[in-house]
Amino acid sequence: MALLEVEDLRVAFGASTAVDGVSFSVEQGKIVGLVGESGCGKSVTSLAVMGLLPRGRAAKARKGDQPVQAAAEEASPGAVKASVAAPQAVPAGGGRRKGGGADVSGRAVFDGTDLLSLPASAMRRRRGKDLAMVFQDPLSSLNPVVPIGRQITEVLERHRGLKGDKANKEAASLLDRVGIPDPVRRLKEYPHQLSGGMRQRVLIAIAVACAPRLLIADEPTTALDVTIQAQILELLKDLVDHEGTALLMITHDLGVVAGMCDEVNVLYSGRVVESAPVRELFARPTHPYTVGLLGSIPRLDLPLHEPLTPIRGSIADVIRWKDGCAFAPRCDRVADACVAGEPALVGSAHAHRCVMAEEVA
Ligand SMILES: Nc1ncnc2c1ncn2[C@@H]1O[C@H](COP(=O)(O)OP(=O)(O)OP(=O)(O)O)[C@@H](O)[C@H]1O
C-alpha cells in the first residue's frame, strides 16, 4: 500500500466545489506531481490533506471547529508559534479568498490512518513530524521579526525535544545540509537578510527538520529565478533519493514535472483528467487537456519559430462534470458524446477521463 492514498477527495466552499472526487497515491521514495492551470484545485487538495483548510458548516457540526489560525500555526515543521509556513497557509485556505469554510469529504490515508478523520489535536501532532509542507513564497512563510535560527530551533524543540546548544548545532547542520554557507552566522539573521533562494532553503530546512515521511511542496520554486529554481529542485530530489521521503509536488510547470516526477496527475476543474507515469504521459498524452498543456510549452526539438498552441478559453469556461466533460467548451475535439453525461476515469496505470480518447490517440 502507498504511503499516502487519497480517495475521492471532495472540497466545497459553500455551493462552490473546488475539488471534485480526486484520487491519487504517493509511494515512499517517489515524487508525484499534481499539475494543472491556476484554479484547478491543486492547492486546495494539498491543504485538505494537511488539514489546513478552515472547516465549513458541515464539518463543524461533525467535529467542532478548528480555527484557521490554529491550523495555520501547526502548518508544517515551521508550524510553531509565529513561525513559518503558517502565514501562507492562512491566505490559501481562508484569508485571501473570501467564501467561508471548506466542507471536506473522502479519505486521505497516510500509513494506514485516515488523516481526514483525525481530531485536530492528533493532526497537529502529525503535521511537522510525519507530514510537512513547503509553500511558494518563503518571505511570507517566514516570520520577518524572528531570526531564522530561532524559527528552526522552535521546530526542533517542539517535535524532537532538542534545546539550547543541541538545537543550535542541529539547526546549523540543517542549514548546511540545504546548502547555506556559513550556517552558524546565518542562524542569527532575519529573513530579509537572505536572498529568495536562501529563504526557500531555510523553509526546506525547517520542513525536513523532523525527517517527515511525506513532504508536500506547493509551487516551491515559482518565485525564484531559474538557476536557483534548479538548485532547489535538486535539493528536494536529493531528499527523496537519500531519505526515502515521499514528495507531492504541486506545480503548473510541466518542465518541473518532466525533470522531477515519477508519476503525474493532471487536474482540470477539480478532477483528475489523466494520470500516468511521467514518461508515459509525455510520450502518449491522452486527454485533450494534457495534449493542450504540452502543446503550449516551448520545445527545443521543434523548428525555430514553430508557433506555440495555447489552449483556447479559460478555466472559467467549464460545464459541471455531471453534465459532461468540464473541458468540452475549450476542446477542439468535442463531440456530442462529451456532453452526454459524466465522463469516467478509465484505466489504471495510465488513466484518462475522455470519452473520445481513442479518436484523440
Ligand atoms: N477559501 C476559499 N473560499 C472559496 N473558494 C476557494 C477558497 N480557496 C480556494 N478556492 C477556490 O477553489 C478553486 C481551487 O483553488 P486552488 O487554490 O486549489 O487552485 P490551484 O490549482 O492551486 O491554483 P493556483 O495555481 O493559482 O494556486 C479555485 O476556484 C479557488 O478560487
TrEMBL record:
<keyword id="KW-0472">Membrane</keyword>
<protein>
    <submittedName>
        <fullName>ABC transporter ATP-binding protein</fullName>
    </submittedName>
</protein>
<dbReference type="GO" id="GO:0005524">
    <property type="term" value="F:ATP binding"/>
</dbReference>
<feature type="compositionally biased region" description="Low complexity">
    <location>
        <begin position="78"/>
        <end position="91"/>
    </location>
</feature>
<dbReference type="InterPro" id="IPR003439">
    <property type="entry name" value="ABC_transporter-like_ATP-bd"/>
</dbReference>
<dbReference type="InterPro" id="IPR013563">
    <property type="entry name" value="Oligopep_ABC_C"/>
</dbReference>
<feature type="region of interest" description="Disordered">
    <location>
        <begin position="60"/>
        <end position="104"/>
    </location>
</feature>
<dbReference type="InterPro" id="IPR017871">
    <property type="entry name" value="ABC_transporter-like_CS"/>
</dbReference>
<dbReference type="InterPro" id="IPR027417">
    <property type="entry name" value="P-loop_NTPase"/>
</dbReference>
<feature type="domain" description="ABC transporter">
    <location>
        <begin position="4"/>
        <end position="294"/>
    </location>
</feature>
<keyword id="KW-0547">Nucleotide-binding</keyword>
<dbReference type="Pfam" id="PF08352">
    <property type="entry name" value="oligo_HPY"/>
</dbReference>
<keyword id="KW-1003">Cell membrane</keyword>
<dbReference type="Pfam" id="PF00005">
    <property type="entry name" value="ABC_tran"/>
</dbReference>
<dbReference type="InterPro" id="IPR050388">
    <property type="entry name" value="ABC_Ni/Peptide_Import"/>
</dbReference>
<keyword id="KW-0813">Transport</keyword>
<keyword id="KW-0067">ATP-binding</keyword>
<dbReference type="InterPro" id="IPR003593">
    <property type="entry name" value="AAA+_ATPase"/>
</dbReference>
<comment type="similarity">
    <text>Belongs to the ABC transporter superfamily.</text>
</comment>
